[in-house]
Design a protein that fits this description.
With 95 residues, the protein is of the alpha+beta class. It has helices at 6-18, 29-38, and strands at 51-55, 63-67, 73-74, 92-93.
Length: 95
């Protein structure tokens, strides 16, 4: 599936029409624009994960949080992973 920004698509259709002032407007263009405006939005699943505390070594002096979904590291817990977008809820699970 390919996600499309409908507003950008409609803008592109109308701008292309304005670039050609002498060209007749296609008969289907107004109907197509209405269909695109009324199209339902896709609901994308948000993958779930959790923050897992990782330690630099056995001394446990420095730690970071790792996303269980994409394994990216951050220093503070966020509700969503800034790298993969998984919902982690901001809770930290210590190993």
């Amino acid at each position: 599936m390919k996600l499309v920004d409908v507003d950008e698509l409609i803008n592109s259709l109308t701008v292309n029409q304005l670039d050609c002032p002498g060209c007749p407007e296609p008969e289907f263009l107004p109907e197509l624009i209405e269909i695109l405006k009324e199209a339902p939005e896709a609901e994308l699943p948000i993958p779930g994960g959790r923050w897992e505390r990782k330690w630099e070594d056995w001394r446990q002096q420095f730690s970071w949080l790792e996303c269980s979904h994409c394994h990216a590291g951050v220093l503070e817990p966020y509700d969503y992973c800034p790298y993969c977008g998984s919902y982690n809820g901001g809770e930290v699970y210590d190993e």
